Amino acid sequence: MTINTRKTACQPDTDAWSDVEDFCDFPILASTRRSFRALLGKASLSFDSLAEIAEQDPAVCLHMLIRIGKRNPSSLDQISTAAGCISLLGMEDVVSLVKQLPVVHEHSALRSERNYVAMLHTAALAGRLAGHWAKLKPGMSQHQAHWAAMLASAPLWPWHLIQVEASQEALHQLAKNKEVIPTLQHCFSNLDKKGLSRWSMLAKKLSLPKPCQSLWQQSIWPNVRPWKTLRKTNLLHIDNNKQLKHQCQQSEMLIYCVNMLAAHYRIGAYRAKSLRWSKITAHLLNLSSETVHQQVINQSLQLAHKGMLLSSINSLLAPSHSSVRYFPAIHCENKPIKMVMERDKPLPKKAASVNREPPAQRKIDQQKMKKLLHRLDEEASSFGDWHTLMRFVLKGITEGIGLSQAYIAVQNKQGDKAKVYYQQGLAETDPLCRLVLDLSKGSIFKRILEKPASLMVTDQNRSKMLKNIPPQQVAALPNEFMMMSLFSGNRPIGIIFADLGTGNQKMPVQPSEYIAFKNLCMHASSSLSKLAEIRKSQSSSDKTNKMRVNRHQA
After folding, report:
1. Are 259 and 253 in contact (CB under 8 A)?
2. How far is the C-alpha of 144 from the C-alpha of 80, rounded, in Å?
């Protein structure tokens, strides 16, 4: 028997905020990856076509901004389009970046991933609306308004992937006709000076445009009474509130309004909050609310032709007051309290097991992972040899990411077999310790060693992915596992595997764990390449010194 003292979600703690602030592996849309592949298959690769595809995916634009922010932060103020990012980074670098980024599917089985995709679609709609209305407000060009409005919500994106409870509760509050600002305060943090500073620092860390960073300043937002005034009266007819008129002339006001419009129209086009924000935006731009509503619908339809915002378009065909439903996150403030009745005889084991506590949720040790990735990047020589490096990588998977077991199959010189030589978390009698993979031509393991690649094998795709594998090998492999090829330069070394083992793991592998696994494997390959270069230079130096000694002795 348990006592649930609270039915609403608690605000995320400091650790949760740290996880969000450290998160940088934003998945891109699967449609973007497909478009890039189709473009690369053509005879010629044009700059404009590459920029057009990148502009449709806010996650790709964010990754390009972050990379520019690390390389040349002084150039960030000059960028207002995807084309500007590509010109600074170079086409080859952008193509390579998109190939390496994780992908999220529009119809994923995970609710958290579907919510993340919806956020990207909403951001794309906000960008289009701001670009369309930029000429009606001073301060920003069409490209600048589109760029800033599209990326303004980026600080909210990682919550949907790594703090699912808080983000789901936020969507539930919005679906209940709550406004965005009260929702942020209820689900994430108080929007006092400290809270706003935290959001602003997160926007700065993501290298967002200046208007997106200043959007988190209290002075930008009107109070409750001025908002009501703007909802009822056109801005041109407001004479007794200079502060409101000044705030409405700021670039941040347009960015804020289009994001509110996009967020509420995604849930339902005819909801009270959607109509409220269409009126506010209309009075801000000196337009009629019917015009604003129709233009939002038109932009939504244009995105729908590209496969985006389909749920919002469906709501246009539904009854006038329908909307997308988001159920609340279930949360218990205190740990379940066990209450056992006193009896003369103990309960049978089967009956006693009813009150078994749920398994503890896994959590990535961000500090440990950060140290390991830094060592792999900057101090490759400290491992001494690649055997030590392999063991540290396996420990990173089990102790840093939190997966139960990890192992590395190293291919032989002939390239026809790969045997497990390194493992962490496996019992000595486990069949996986003696696993020898067949690297014949049709094998998935052979294909994954042709170039750096990763794969998540699940119950749904297992039969398809392992169809050409010998039955005894298939039987030895776990039901669900992930793997990634390991390279030293252009030379394939082997395959790293990781899974949850055979224990009582009710929670499947999370997207954040798969992303962390891929990231660690890529850093391991890079570190192996550096180690090989160091050993090569040392060998060359030793050979030169030996020749000098021989000459001296002669």
Report:
1. no
2. 5
